[in-house]
Design goal:
33 strands, homotrimer, 11-stranded parallel beta sheet, 12-stranded mixed beta sheet, mainly beta
Chain lengths: ~260, ~260, ~260
C-alpha cells in the first residue's frame, strides 16, 4: 500500500492559518467588528467590510469585495473561479457583494458577479459568472442562473427557477417558482451548425411570471405584463397584457389599479 | 493593509469547544451512545436523544429536540433561525426531529419545524418555518417547502417539487417529481393591491399527483384522486376522479381495486 | 443537565487523523502530487490517483477509486452509502470517478456510480446508486438522477432536470433544463396493486429534448429526434422526427444538415 501524501501542499495551507483560525491569502483587508468563523477561508486580494459576517466553512476566493454588514452563511462560496470558459475579463473584474446583502447556506456565487445592496440570495442557489443583481432584490432557493444576465432592483425570483444565460430582467419583475427560460432556438451542442449568438428573453419593468412558466429565447415580455401559471410563451407579450395557455395567447389587460 | 480581526468573537467560540472537539452552547443535554462529529456545532437549549448521530459540520441551532436514534447527516442545519419574518411564535416553539428520522446531507430545516418518527428528508432540501411532517413520510431531494404547511403520515413527496406556503397535505398522499403549487392568485409583490391571505391547495387523503403537475392556489384535490403528469389544475378535483390536461379535466374514476 | 458524550467514538476519529490533517481509513492508496485538504475524510479501501485534488470537507466513503487528475470540489461526497434499498451488489462494486473528471461543490455521488473520463458533474447534484455516465459528458447543477441509469458519452444534461430511475440515455443526447422523466405508469406507493417493474424512457443517440419537457415511462425517443420545449411526450417518437405540444405530436423532420 502506497500512502504518499502531498506534503508540500498541506504544509502551505497550515502556514497561512491566522491566529483566529481561519485561512487567508495576501492583500486581505478586514473591517471593524467583522466576524469570521475559524473554519472560513479567504483568498488573495479580498476586502471584507465593517461588520461583515462569514459563517462556517465559507470560502471567499480571490478578488472579492464584501461590503459592510453583508452576511455570508455557512458553506457558501463567493467568487467561485473554476469556470467552463476562461476569458480575460474574469481576471480583471472583482466579485462584489453589496452592503447588507445576505447569501444563504450552500450558495455559490461565481467570479465577476455583482450583488446589490440589501439583496438576498437564498439557500443552495448558483449564480454563474457575470450575473449582476440590483439592490433590494431576492433570489430564491435552489435557483440556477447561467450567467451573463442583468437583474434589476426590487426583483423577486422565486425558488427552483432556471434562468438560461444572456437575459435582461428589469426592475420590479416578479418571477414565481420553477419558471424556466431558454436561450437557444435549437440545441447546437456538438453539432455542425452555424454558431448562433444565444440570447435569452427580456423581461420588462414590473412584469409578473406565474409558476412553471416556460419562456422561449429572444422574446420580450412587455412592461407589467402578466403571464399565467404554466404558460408556454413563444412570442413577444405586449405591455400590460395578460397571457395564458399552451402556447400563450393574450386574454386580457392588467387593470389600472394593479399597475405600479 | 488593515487586518483587524474580531478577536472577542473568535475567542468566545474557541472557549465553547468541548473535549470531543465539537462546539456547544448552554443547556445542552446529550443522550447515551450519541455520536457527535468533532466538527458539529450545537446551540443553546438543545436535547440530543440516545443514539442520535450528528455528521460532519452539522449545525444544530437553539431550541432543538432531536429524538432517539435520529440521524443528521453532513452539512445539514437544524433549527435555522435567520427568518424573513420574525414572529414571536418562533421564540416559543422548539424544532423537533422525531425518533429514527433521517435528515440527509446539506438539508436545511427551519426553526419550529416538526419532523415525525421514521420520516426521511433527503439531500439539499429546504423546509421553511412551521413545516410539520408526520411519521413514516419521505421528502425527496432538492425539494423546496415554503412553510406554514402540514404534511401527514406515510406521505411521499418526490424530488425537486416546490410547495408554496400554507398548504395541507393529508396522509398517504403521493406527489411525484417537480410538482409545483401556488399560494397566491395574483402576484402582489410591491403592488398597491388589497392584502390577500395566501392559501395553497389542499391535497386530501391518498391523492396521487403526477410529475411536473401545476396546482393553483386554494383548490382541493379530493380523496385518492389521480392527477396525470403535466396537468394544470385550476379547480377542485372530486374524490376518486382521474384528471388530465391543460387545464385539467375529469377523464375517469380511480377503479376500486386501486383504492386504499 | 446531562452531558454524557460518546467518548469512544470521538476518540476513534481523532486517532485516525493523519499528519496532513485529513482523516483516512484502512487500505488507502494515494498517488503522487495528489492534493488532499486537511478537512477531507477518506474511508476504507480507497485509491486516489496521481494528481487528484480533494477540496474542503470532501468525504470519500469506502470502496472508491478516483482516477488521475480528477478534481472533487468542496463538500462533495463520493460513494455515499446510506442507501434506501440495501442490496448485496453495493458491497461488491466500487464507485469509480474517471480520469480528469470534475465533481463540483456539494454534489453527492452514490455508491456503485461510475463517472467517465473528462466528465463533469456540476454543483448540488445527486446521482443515486448505479448511475453510470460515459466520457466527456456534462451533468448540470441541481440535477436529480434516481439511479439504475446508463448515460452515454458526450451527453449534456442541463440543470434542474430530474431523471427517474431505470433509464437509458445514449451518446450525444442533449437534455435541456428542467426536463423530467417518469418511470411508473401509475404511482403504487402503499397500494395493493400488482408490482410493476418500473422502467423509464429510452433516449436514443443524438436526440435533443427542450426545456421543461415531460417524458412518460417506457417510451422511446428515436435517434436524433427533437422534442420542443414544454412538450408532454406520451408515446414513442420516431427517429429524426420533430415533436411538440401537449400531448406531443409529430410536426416535422430534422433536416439533413442538422444531423450528426
Amino acid at each position: 500500500m502506497r500512502t504518499t501524501r502531498a506534503h508540500g501542499e498541506v504544509e502551505r495551507m497550515v502556514k497561512s492559518e491566522r491566529a483566529g483560525g481561519y485561512k487567508a491569502g495576501k492583500d486581505v483587508e478586514i473591517g471593524k467588528r467583522a466576524f469570521i468563523d475559524s473554519t472560513a477561508s479567504i483568498g488573495n486580494n479580498v476586502v471584507i467590510g465593517d461588520g461583515v459576517q462569514l459563517g462556517r466553512n465559507v470560502v471567499i476566493k480571490d478578488n472579492v469585495v464584501i461590503k459592510k454588514n453583508a452576511m455570508i452563511e455557512d458553506n457558501a462560496t463567493i467568487g467561485y473561479d473554476h469556470l467552463t470558459k476562461k476569458k480575460k475579463i474574469y481576471e480583471e473584474y472583482p466579485t462584489i457583494i453589496g452592503e447588507n446583502a445576505l447569501i444563504r447556506t450552500n450558495t455559490v456565487i461565481y467570479k465577476t458577479c455583482k450583488i446589490g445592496k440589501n439583496t438576498w440570495v437564498n439557500h443552495n442557489t448558483i449564480l454563474r459568472e457575470n450575473t449582476e443583481v440590483g439592490h433590494d432584490s431576492t433570489i430564491g432557493n435552489l435557483v440556477m442562473c447561467e450567467g451573463y444576465t442583468k437583474i434589476g432592483n426590487q426583483v423577486a425570483i422565486h425558488s427552483q427557477s432556471g434562468l438560461g444565460g444572456n437575459m435582461i430582467i428589469e426592475d420590479k419583475v416578479f418571477i414565481a417558482t420553477n419558471v424556466v427560460t431558454a436561450n437557444g432556438r435549437r440545441p447546437t451542442y456538438l453539432r455542425n451548425m452555424p454558431a448562433i449568438k444565444d440570447k435569452g428573453p427580456i423581461i420588462r419593468y414590473g412584469a409578473r411570471i406565474g409558476i412553471s412558466v416556460i419562456l422561449l429565447p429572444e422574446i420580450e415580455i412587455g412592461r407589467e405584463a402578466l403571464v399565467a401559471s404554466g404558460a408556454l410563451v413563444t412570442r413577444d407579450v405586449p405591455p400590460f397584457s395578460i397571457v395564458m395557455g399552451f402556447p400563450a395567447k393574450v386574454v386580457g389587460t392588467v387593470p389600472e389599479e394593479e399597475r405600479l
